[in-house]
Amino acid sequence: MTEKSNQPDSASRGAASDPATPASTTPSVSATISAGTTADLTDEALTPTVDAVTQAAATIVEAFAATDTKAYFAGFAEDASFIFHPEDLRLNSRAEYEETWRGWHADGWSVVSCVSSDPLVQTFPGGAVFSHTVDTTVETGSGRESYRERESIVFRHLGEGHLIAIHEHLSTVPGDDGSASADSVTSDGQGGAASARSGDAPGTEAVGR
C-alpha cells in the first residue's frame, strides 16, 4: 500500500514560496503644494522661473523699504527662520522676528532707503535662493545710520509661480566702507530685491527684514 505524502507537490510549493510581488506604490514625481495636497509634477514644473523669484524678492524689499509691517511679513512662511548678524540669537519663526521688529519700532527705528545691487538667482526643483548686496539707511532713536550688507533669501515654491520665503540670512561685507554702489538698483520697484536692517544698535537692523 502506498503511503500518501503530506508534503505539497512542487507546483504548490512554488506557489507558496514565490508569491506575486505587489506593484510599487511610489509616485513618480510628487510635490507637496500645500498641507495635505500633492500633485504629480515634473522637475520643470517644480522649478520657479528667475522672474518669479526676482518679483517675490522685490515685493519683500519694497515692503521693507516702506516699513510696511503687514506686507513685509506676508512674504515669509510662519516657520521661516532668520539669521541677522546684529542679533545674538537665530530667530526660529516669523513670530519671533515680528516680536523683534516691534521692539525696533518701539525704539524709534524705521527704514529711510534701501538699495539693492549685484543680485543672483539660483533656482532648483521646489524653490530658489536669492542673494544680493544691500545698502540701507535707517532712522534710529539715536540718529540716522547707513550700512552695506549681503543678504540671502531662500524661497519655497508653492506651485504655479507662487513663492514664500522660508529663510533669510544677513551678513557683513568685509572691508567695505559702507558707501552705496553707483550702479545699484533702488527698491522703488525698478528692480532688485532688498531689505534692510540697521546695525547693532538697539532697535536697528539691516537687510531683508
Automatic annotation (TrEMBL):
Coiled coil: none annotated. It comes from the Bacteria. Pfam families: SnoaL_3. Residues 1-32, 172-209 are annotated as: Disordered. Residues 15-32 have a biased composition (Low complexity). Residues 53-173 form the SnoaL-like domain. Residues 1-10 have a biased composition (Polar residues). This is SnoaL-like domain-containing protein. It comes from Brevibacterium casei.
